[in-house]
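Now for a concrete sample entry.
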Amino acid sequence: MRALSLAIILAFPLFLGAACTPGRSNLAASDGGVWVSASDGEAWEQRSTIYKDRVSEKTISEVNIARFVFSPADPRKLFAISEKSGLWFSWNQGHFWDLVLPNTGVADIAIHPENPSRIYAAVGATVALSTDEGVTWKSVYTSDNPGILITSVALRPGRTATVYAATSIGDLLVSDDSGISWRVHASLGTGTTLTRMQFHPQRDQTMYALVSGRGLARSEDAGEHWSYFEEEFKPFAGANDPRGYALVPSGIVYASRYGLLRSLNHGEDWTSLPLISGPRDANIYSVAVNQENPLEIFYGTTSTLYHSLDGGFNWIPRPLPTTRTATELALYPGNSDMLFMGAGLSRR
């Protein structure tokens, strides 16, 4: 481990995003970037503007979006993690965007719940820290081997000085002092790479993550030991190919190549949700669940948004407003009538 400042992580003014965007002036906007619907997917608004005046416009409409993260203190502020186009920030529900981390290797971020100006990011082989909401960044951990990537970061609820960082060689690193010192917390083995780590909001020691080739992983002791659902998922061919998951108060909804599985007892039992798009390579790439009403479920495919109001027994299909895949879905915190969609290129 060595302290190493990132050459690409620099202080820069907010308007720099307009100068370093893949968007181009005076050209018709493409259909990537960010889309928002207030009508459950019936009508959509593209929110991808960086800069606009009477003669030109710059946008992120060519960017492929991988994930949204909302600020816990003010959901009008949200981050969009892109595929190889950096980390983007909006202060006004996605109407305008700034590039705050112009690195192609941004894999994940974690925002401090009590101090949302403090953000940890997985950037290539580095864990980066911002204490000013993404304006400036510094390295708090960098691997000696640049080929060992940080694939996910998370903060432990109630102990937010405890920072987790998963690596591409199967190690889970932990810092108990906000990133000053680190140690190996768990070794899952080569080929077991955790992504999208998240603590369950009702169980402060239960963590979930995705693992390519193995599906869903769970730890019930704050990341020290991990288990998989290999026996439980045997009846569901393709469940080892993860696409996403959404935590609900009593459990989890898990999306995979098989389709959608739901557990209402934190993984002890699983139910397959019937899909009109068909199981077994259902082309699911994103899933979202209404936290106030877990019976309301959305999932996105390469061409269609599916919406259920009864826990997945009946589905309303609506065409996507883009030729790209619905790679991310997120309901706006505090207003489940507003659905955010990230458009991107499918990777499978």
About this structure: Residues 219 and 231 are 16 Å apart (CA to CA). The chain has one helix and 30 strands. Confidence is low (pLDDT under 50) at residues 1-29. The first strand starts at residue 33 and ends at 37.
